[in-house]
Write a structure and sequence with these properties.
This protein is α/β, with parallel strands linked by helices. Helices cover 26% and strands 28% of the residues. It folds into two domains: 4-157 and 203-303, Metallo-beta-lactamase, Chain A; 169-200, no CATH class.
Length: 304
């Protein structure tokens, strides 16, 4: 099975603290690296996580609060200093486009690579990236400003060829792909060998949902249904539910409720308020509703 993993670079909220960096993470899928959000300190965390700068070609920004995007310009500049030549694609709410261009015109005039901005509407569900093996869907979250979550979802693949069976029935190599895609094999004697006898089922398509920043948001449940891993806003415990409501963030119980209702396989809590010296209370609260819950932390890598 191909690699599909999430590396946390920062999981704190609002401002950097001695314990947590602000929001950023890298998703590796089938050899491709995608960055989600880019708070201050992201470059340092990339170094600590041993993530190669040059392999990041797509960056997704959820919304225009500084703790999710203040590191972006510095990263663009550093890419230039490191001799980058490959294009860099920025997917972000439309409003960031002119601001980013103004900053780049001032600070990054001599880049030797292309920065391509692809704006999207965070209030609309849409596929904003797609290749042969993966799609990324942006969907609305419930926050104080327009904010999007992201669903990274593998596309179905062909069945696996059973080489022993293929050799036994004398299937020629040039016919392998047709059989993997569902075809039967006809022997020289005219016997039909069904596809199912020559193949093994394809790997199950995996998915990862990034849901930060948001209050409890039932409208996104159908979109992220069945996700293998959800990273969810967990800024407060239920003791501070009034603050969660005021600032349009979630409690640990809200995050767990989302995981239950979406039939997720695993939940990862993140975007922690600095008021908690120990996030164990958040973990325990979530586990009461959804036992398969973990806490995010810097440089943690979770495989899907």
């Amino acid at each position: 099975m191909e690699k599909f993993q999430v590396t946390i670079l920062g999981c704190g909220s609002a401002t950097p603290s001695p314990k947590h960096y602000t929001s950023s993470q890298v998703i590796e899928i089938r050899g491709k690296l995608f960055m989600v959000d880019c708070g201050e300190g992201t470059q340092i965390q990339l170094r600590r996580s041993h993530v190669a700068f040059a392999r990041i070609n797509q960056i997704f920004i959820s919304h225009l609060h500084g703790d999710h995007c203040f590191g972006l310009l510095g990263m663009i500049s550093s890419f230039g200093l490191l001799g980058r030549t490959a294009p860099l694609i920025i997917h972000a709410p439309q409003e960031l486009g002119p601001v980013l261009q103004y900053e780049m015109d001032f600070y990054c005039r001599d880049l030797e690579y292309q920065v391509e901005f692809q704006g999207f509407d965070p209030d609309t569900t849409s596929v904003i990236y797609e290749d042969r093996s993966l799609s990324v869907t942006a969907f609305p979250l419930r926050h104080r400003v327009p904010c999007a979550g992201f669903l990274f979802q593998e596309k179905p693949t062909s069945d696996h060829l059973d080489r022993a069976a293929a050799d036994f029935y004398g299937v020629p190599t040039w016919d392998y792909n047709r059989i993997k895609d569902g075809g039967d094999f006809i022997t020289p004697d005219g016997d039909v060998i069904p596809h199912e006898r020559l193949t093994k089922p394809a790997d199950t398509c995996r998915s990862y949902a990034y849901c930060c920043d948001t209050a409890y948001n039932p409208s996104m449940i159908p979109i992220i249904k069945g996700a293998d891993l959800i990273y969810h806003d967990c800024t407060y415990s239920s003791r501070n539910a009034d603050l969660a409501k005021k600032h349009f963030h979630s409690t640990a119980a809200d995050a767990a409720r989302t995981a239950v209702e979406s039939c997720a396989r695993k939940l990862m809590l993140g975007h922690f308020s600095a008021r908690y010296d120990d996030e164990t209370c958040l973990l325990e609260e979530a586990k009461q509703l959804f036992p398969d819950t973990i806490l995010a932390k810097e440089n943690l890598t979770v495989s899907i």
